[in-house]
Write a structure and sequence with these properties.
Number of helices: 4
Strand content: under 5%
Helix content: 55-70%
Structural class: mainly alpha
Shape: elongated
Distance between the termini: 60 Å
Number of strands: 0
Length: 148
C-alpha cells in the first residue's frame, strides 16, 4: 500500500525511538497497525462495492460488443486474399505494402520543392510580434486587446 524503502523505515524507527519513550513504542506500533488494517479493509470494501455496481450492469454489453467485433474481424481476415493476410503479421512502419510498391519499369519521382511564391506566402502569414507605440494603448478599444 505504501512504498517505503528500508532506509526510510529505519529513519522513521529511529525518530520514533527518540521522540517516543521506548516503553510506549510497542503500543504505538500496535495502534498504527490497527489504523493501517482499517484503511486496507475500507479500501477493499469500497473496491468490491464499486466492482459490484459497475461491473455487472455495464460490462455485459461491452463484452457482447467485443465478441461481435472479434467475429467480424475474423470474417474479414478470412475473406482477404492470401498475400494481404501475409502482410498483416508485419506491422513495421518502414515497410511499404505490396500493392503500393512501384513496379521496376516505373521510376519514382522525388518530391518537388516548394515554389518561391509559396515560401513568400508562408512567410507573409507570420506576423512580427506587436510592439505598442508610445502614447497608444490597446486597452479598452474593444478589439480583443490587439493594437492598431
Amino acid at each position: 500500500m505504501f512504498d517505503f524503502s528500508f532506509t526510510e523505515l529505519l529513519i522513521i524507527g529511529v525518530v520514533a525511538v527518540i521522540v517516543l519513550d521506548p516503553r510506549h513504542l510497542p503500543d504505538v506500533a500496535r495502534g498504527a497497525g490497527r489504523w493501517v488494517a482499517r484503511a486496507r479493509r475500507f479500501m477493499t470494501k469500497m473496491k468490491e462495492d464499486l466492482d459490484g455496481q459497475v461491473g455487472t450492469e455495464h460490462l455485459a454489453p461491452l463484452r457482447e460488443l467485443n465478441q461481435e467485433w472479434q467475429r467480424t474481424k475474423a470474417l474479414l481476415q478470412d475473406s482477404l486474399p492470401s498475400e494481404w493476410q501475409d502482410s498483416l503479421g508485419d506491422e513495421s512502419p518502414d515497410r511499404t505494402p505490396p500493392a503500393l510498391e512501384a513496379s521496376p519499369d516505373v521510376p519514382r519521382r522525388p518530391p518537388r520543392p516548394a515554389s518561391p511564391s509559396r515560401r513568400r506566402r508562408r512567410r507573409g502569414r507570420r506576423r512580427p510580434p506587436h510592439r505598442a507605440q508610445a502614447g497608444t494603448s490597446s486597452v479598452g478599444k474593444g478589439n480583443g486587446g490587439e493594437g492598431v
